[in-house]
């Protein structure tokens, strides 16, 4: 009896996963870089400085919220895990492709990541 219940539970869980789908598709031409959180293009020093200046508004560090539009993975850029990204950490993130020059959003749109009519696949 226990084996039967366990088998039914496993079958129900795997069926639910199969029906859940993959979620909203990634835009074909995202502006500013890959919105996936993976490393992207490496910025040169001038591009990195521009991204820093746009994100900080003259502050000496970035919080996770401030960094979110341009830092692909905050925890990887925040080398000392203090919850803030300094200019030195930001520069290192640029060298590793963890910083993008502009926030990601679908091309030719007003922003956001989910299309108005997602495709069902």
Automatic annotation (TrEMBL):
It comes from Hyphomicrobium nitrativorans NL23. Residues 1-20 form the signal peptide. This is EF-hand domain-containing protein. Keywords: Signal. Residues 84-95 have a biased composition (Basic and acidic residues). InterPro entries: EF-hand-dom_pair, EF_Hand_1_Ca_BS, EF_hand_dom. Residues 19-41, 80-121 are annotated as: Disordered. GO terms for molecular function: calcium ion binding. It comes from the Bacteria. The keyword Signal applies. Residues 65-100 form the EF-hand domain.
């Amino acid at each position: 009896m226990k084996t039967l219940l366990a088998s039914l539970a496993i079958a129900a869980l795997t069926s639910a996963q199969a029906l859940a789908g993959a979620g909203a598709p990634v835009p074909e031409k995202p502006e500013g870089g890959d919105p996936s959180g993976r490393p992207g293009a490496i910025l040169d020093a001038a591009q990195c400085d521009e991204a820093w200046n746009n994100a900080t508004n003259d502050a000496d560090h970035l919080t996770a919220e401030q960094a979110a539009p341009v830092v692909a993975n905050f925890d990887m850029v925040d080398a000392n895990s203090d919850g803030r990204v300094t200019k030195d950490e930001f520069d290192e993130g640029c060298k590793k492709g963890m910083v993008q020059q502009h926030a990601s959003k679908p091309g030719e749109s007003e922003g956001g990541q989910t299309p108005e009519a997602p495709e069902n696949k």
